[in-house]
Each structure stands twice: as C-alpha cells, then as structure tokens.
Design goal:
alpha+beta, Thrombin, subunit H, seven-stranded antiparallel beta sheet, six-stranded antiparallel barrel, 13 strands, about 35% helix
C-alpha cells in the first residue's frame, strides 16, 4: 500500500532529524577531539617546561654543591696550613711543614758515586742543587745524573747549566711535580727557627732543626750572601733546602765549617732565584722563578 503524503513527510522529517543529530554529534565529537588534543599539547608543553626547569634547577644545585665542596676543601686546606704554621711558630713541631715540603726534595746520585740533595723549584721538573754535588774528585761533571724522588721513583736528569761562582746547578727531569716556594731572604731574621732537609751520609730525606745564627755571612767566594745556621749539616745535605716556618725556602745548604760545631751555611734564596734565572735565561731563554 502506497504511503500517504503525511507519512512521507513524517518519515522525511525523522530522517532529517537523524541526519542533523548525526551531523551535530560528529561536529561535537570533532570539537571535543580538537579540545582534547589542545589540552594534551598544553599538558605536554607544561611537562616539557617543568622538566627543563627541573633539570636547570638540578644543574644549579649540582654546581652549587661542587662550589661548596671546593670552598670547603680550600677552607679546610687553609685552616690546616694555618694550624701547621701556628705549631711551627710556637715551637711545638714542624711536622705539618715537613709533610708538605719533603715531597719536593730529591736525592741526587751521579756516575762519580757521590750523593747529594736537590729540590724542585718549578712544576715542570726543574731542580736546583749545588754544582759541586755533580762533580767528580777531579772537578769534572759526572757523565750521568740520576734523581730519586720522594715516591722512590728514579729518573735520569738533564744537566741544564751551572753558576760556578755561587756553586748552583740547574737540572731537569720529566714529569709534573709540586714545587717549593722561595721566600725573600731579606726578610730572614736571626733566631728564627728553620729546618734542613737532605741526605746526610746517604740517609735519604732526613730532617734537622735549628735556628738562623746570622745572615749575610761572607763565603769563600767573597760574597756576603750566606745564612749561618746551627741546623745539623753533613755530607749529603749539600744542595738541599733550608726552610722557614712558612714552608718556604730561605736558602740552599752549601757548606759547613768542619772544625766547629753547628756552623752550617746556606746560599740565600734571593741569590738562588737570581742564579737559577740567569742559567735558564742563558741556556733555555726563559725565566723559571718570578
């Protein structure tokens, strides 16, 4: 039976409503999806920003911790040095000063069989000693020179040059080392406590304590450039450092008067600096100690 006109209208209206509903639902779902996608992107952006901010803050905290640790290490090291200085100044002991200084002292052995002392004046491995330590009984330079460091390492030394008038020689070994600082010998006071580090009679890295007995003494070269000390010096101490309570070198132990007791002499540090730089300037065209 054919549909009546009003039935057709009713069915058409219903179909239109369904289509409109489906279209509206599709648009609503699309808009909802777009909104969700935007929210998702916003959330991702916020998470990324939060992550970047967190990483930045973590980096800042890490850097701050590193700086704090370095500061603490420096402060503790400075405090430790001050305690060592107070001990030495009070005459209690030189142990803290010696612990730091002895690592830059070396034993020198030559093909002539003689043994002496030297000390490192530059981180590149430059060593100062007495020129006579490197000579044989005839006064000739030994054919080979070996250096024994504090950690018992043995190295062949390169002979750079010498100052015969001041009895100073400059050597070099390969590697990087802690160097001793040289004080201004014009500031040395009679009566101040000092220590001598060397290898007396082959006893490596021995330490003796004394005081400065006089300054600007005249040596056999006619130069008033020597510190007199009562610190015990024996064969093997030649070329070793004479060190003050700040752990700095004020002289290089050079000779003693054998007929007397406690009469040792060390070339003043200002003369060491001048002599070492003269040798380096002539032989290497450089300055080692500023």
């Amino acid at each position: 039976m054919p549909l009546e006109r009003h039935h057709k209208i009713l069915i058409g209206s219903f179909t239109s409503i369904v289509l409109i509903f489906m279209l509206t639902t599709s648009v609503f779902l699309y808009l909802l999806f777009v909104r969700m996608d935007l929210n998702y992107q916003n959330i991702n952006d916020k998470v990324a920003n939060l992550e970047a901010d967190t990483n930045s803050k973590v980096s800042e905290i890490s850097e701050s911790l590193i700086q704090t640790n370095e500061l603490l290490d420096n402060e503790l090291g400075s405090i430790s040095k001050q305690i060592d200085l107070i001990k030495a100044s009070a005459g209690e002991d030189f142990s803290g000063i010696i612990d730091g200084a002895v690592k830059s002292v070396v034993t020198i052995k030559t093909s002539a069989g003689f043994q002496g002392t030297g000390f490192i004046i530059n981180s590149e491995g430059y060593i100062i000693t007495n020129a006579h330590v490197l000579s044989d009984s005839s006064g000739n330079l030994a054919s080979s020179i070996q250096i024994i460091t504090y950690d018992k390492g043995t190295k062949n030394a390169e002979f750079i040059g010498y100052d015969g008038n001041l009895d100073v020689a400059l050597l070099k070994i390969s590697g990087t080392y802690d160097a001793l600082s040289l004080a201004n010998s014009n500031d040395v006071q009679v009566g101040e406590k000092v220590i001598a580090i060397g290898n007396p009679l082959g006893l490596q890295f021995s330490v003796s304590e004394g005081i400065v007995s006089a300054v600007h003494r005249t040596g056999s070269n006619g130069l008033a450039k020597y510190i007199q000390t009562d610190a015990a010096l024996n064969p093997g101490n030649s070329g070793g450092p004479l060190i003050n309570k700040q752990g700095k070198v004020i002289g290089i132990n050079n000779f003693k008067i054998g007929s007397g007791e406690s009469l040792g002499f060390a070339l003043e540090s200002n003369s060491i600096i001048e002599s070492a730089n003269d040798i380096a300037s002539q032989e290497l065209n450089k300055i080692l100690i500023s």
